[in-house]
Automatic annotation (TrEMBL):
Residues covered by the HTH gntR-type domain: 5-73
PROSITE patterns given in the database record: HTH_GNTR (PS50949)
GO biological process: negative regulation of DNA-templated transcription
Name the record gives this protein: HTH gntR-type domain-containing protein
Organism whose genome encodes this protein: Devosia riboflavina
Length: 251
């Protein structure tokens, strides 16, 4: 029986996985159709259908006379105000927000984390690293810190409730506000470039923030690294914000 090769759905999913994982970086030019057929074990009509589907999904773009390229993530206008929410920001622009936890651990609070959360230096905190996506393309990654004494089972509640807003509600915090935001830019590290699908030497935007309950008591501190070519920030006028080019390594 003649080998029919992989289906167009299988071919689409394999190429999509390489885009999402970063093995195919933004602006990468795909090989020729014959090369792709060999690479993915697909017949030409299946390959063409797979590529067309990825173009319609916004993961590839065709430049006539030049070839097919991996598309960049859409530019996100991220609004930072008193009540900044990741999912609401993306959903309001027609983007699907998702995220993944990379690690969770209990660590002693550094000087900077302790100052942000208004706790003692070396007090136990919950440290969580994460990565955020817009339409399955990575746009941010970072660390979030919470006082372990105030939120002793935060990890379990987050796994159950999925949303940090819902977790805060479960602790009796009915609402919270952005207390402080600091933004600066730097070159992405090798790991950040790989995780965010950036080219070596590209810039990232670093956003450090402190959230507080309605009594003004800090409840969370985080530092997020954003793909610099995929996001712009809009600050609401009543939001206290610090813009700086200085970077601290004391996380």
């Amino acid at each position: 029986m003649r080998n029919q090769g992989h289906s167009w759905e299988e071919t689409r999913d394999r190429i999509s996985e390489e885009i999402v994982s970063g093995r195919l970086a933004p602006d990468t030019r795909l090989p020729s159709e014959p090369e792709l057929c060999v690479l993915y074990g697909a017949r030409r009509h299946s390959l063409r259908k797979a590529l067309a589907a990825l173009v319609s999904e916004g993961k590839l773009r065709v430049e006539h006379g030049r070839g097919t390229f991996v598309e960049r993530a859409p530019l996100l206008n991220y609004v930072i105000g008193p009540r900044t929410r990741f999912r609401e920001n993306l959903n309001s622009q027609g983007l699907t927000a998702s995220g993944e936890t990379l690690s969770e651990m209990h660590i002693p609070a550094s000087t900077r984390v302790a100052a942000a959360l208004q706790i003692e230096i070396d007090a136990p905190v919950i440290a969580r690293s994460w990565r955020g996506f817009a339409n399955d393309l990575p746009i941010s990654m970072g660390w979030a810190y919470h006082d372990l004494t105030r939120f002793p089972d935060l990890q379990e509640r987050r796994r159950e409730l999925t949303s940090i807003t819902k977790v805060y509600h479960s602790y009796g915090i009915t609402d919270y506000r952005r207390l402080r935001t600091t933004v600066f830019t730097r070159i992405a590290s090798e790991n950040e470039a790989a995780m965010l699908m950036l080219r070596p030497g590209q810039s990232v935007l670093v956003v450090q923030k402190v959230d507080a309950d309605l009594d003004g008591r800090p409840i969370g501190f985080s530092e997020a690294v954003w793909a610099g070519d995929r996001v712009q920030f809009t600050f609401e006028t009543d939001q206290p914000t610090v813009l700086t080019t200085e970077r601290s390594n004391d996380v």
